[in-house]
Design goal:
Elements (H helix, E strand, L loop, with lengths): L6 H6 L5 E3 L8 H9 L4 E4 L5 H14 L4 E6 L5 H10 L4 E5 L4 H9 L3 E6 L2 H10 L4 E4 L5 E2 L5 H11 L4 E4 L5 H9 L4 E4 L1 H4 L8 H9 L5 E4 L7 E4 L2 H11 L4 H8 L2 H8 L22 H15 L1
Parallel strand pairs: 1-9, 2-3, 3-4, 4-5, 5-6, 6-8, 8-9
Antiparallel strand pairs: 7-11, 10-11
Bound molecules: ligand TUI.
Length: 308
């Protein structure tokens, strides 16, 4: 399928309008370069990492691909200011943002020629981002893994498409060509995929994490932390179920933050089932096999082509 007239492909200079999710602690140079080399848009996750670490990731990624790749900046990170300057210094092609409003950075990114694509969980924020100069928006539904909004992909995407003129990328619950095609039927011009790339060969996660996602069934993801204002979706492990019980039994948000501090790192690096947070999307039940990033991209595009 040719995407010559697709606005996301034109904007980013990529072959297929498939963005990789900006998964904190997970998405580093090997995965990002593999997705970009496959014709999609690979993304390095800034997460909470300091600028020096991400600078090295960018350097390594440039050695592995001559294609465009992006950096995801998590607005809650204490290092968001430093990363906002790093992308300019390192001439990163595009930025995606999450977990907050990146409005204060957009002008300087645009002046530096960086394409800006915020993740938005609502129509109101999509409109605000368009007014601030965003080049596109990622409408991320609550099927997504990690920190989520309240509206489902199926409801959010068409409403955002109707509300803004910039191209919309659909995210949340998309893991194959059917999801890609469905996103396009709702008016999206691209998709963002996290969970399926989480189990890509090039993705450097602990094997316990990969096995949990591969063996997850439809009902195996849950959302914890709603009462903190930062709801997070992940695999329904014993630890995640205990967190839910803790919330229901009147635990405080402060104690909750204490229990979950460092939990994503414990999952990604140590595969710690007892106290790690194995973030994943609600579509994990459909993700069944480990493949290279290129096989994933090619499968999705081939299947979507038949459907569209
Ligand atoms: O950001 C994500 N997913 C994430 S971030 C993350 S790390 C984290 N750890 C603990 C607490 C919070 C985050 C793990 N997964 N996805 C994009 C996303 N952005 N989802 C929701 C939002 C969002 C929410 C509110 C974007 C903007 C926003 O704006 C509120 C406002 O008006 O400032």
């Amino acid at each position: 399928m040719k995407f010559d007239n697709n606005r996301i492909c034109t904007l980013l200079g990529i072959k297929y309008p498939v963005l990789q999710g900006g998964m904190a602690w997970i998405a580093e140079h090997r995965l990002a370069s593999a997705v970009s080399n496959a014709g999609g848009a690979g993304i390095i996750a800034g997460g909470n990492a300091p600028a020096e670490v991400i600078e090295m990731e960018i350097e390594k990624c440039k050695k592995l691909t001559d294609k465009p790749f992006g950096l995801n900046i998590m607005m809650l990170s204490p290092n968001a200011d430093d990363l906002s300057q790093l992308v300019i210094d390192k001439k990163v092609a595009f930025v995606t943002t999450g977990a907050g409003n990146p409005g204060k950075y957009i002008e300087k990114w645009k002046a530096a020629g960086i394409k800006v694509i915020p993740v938005i969980p609502s129509v109101a924020l999509a409109k605000r981002m368009e007014r601030s100069g965003a080049d596109a928006v990622i409408a991320e539904g609550s099927e997504s893994g990690g920190h989520i909004g309240e509206i489902t992909t199926f409801c959010l995407v068409p409403q955002v498409v109707d509300a803004v003129s910039v191209p919309v990328i659909a995210a949340g619950g998309i893991a194959d060509g059917r999801g890609f095609a469905a996103g396009f039927m709702l008016g999206a011009e691209g998709v963002q995929i996290g969970t399926r790339f989480l189990v890509a060969e090039e993705c450097q996660i602990h094997e316990n994490y990969r096995n949990l996602v591969i063996s997850a069934k439809d009902t195996d993801s849950i959302v914890t932390g709603r009462f903190t204002g930062h709801p997070c979706r992940g695999v329904k492990t014993r630890f995640a179920r205990d967190l839910l019980t803790f919330e229901r039994d009147g635990g405080t948000p402060e104690e909750f933050e204490e229990k979950t501090a460092g939990a994503l790192k414990r999952a990604v690096c140590d595969g710690n089932i007892e106290s790690g947070s194995f973030l994943c999307g609600a579509i994990a039940g459909m993700v069944r096999k480990v493949q290279s990033a290129a096989e994933i991209v090619n499968d999705i595009i081939a299947e979507a082509e038949k459907l569209l």
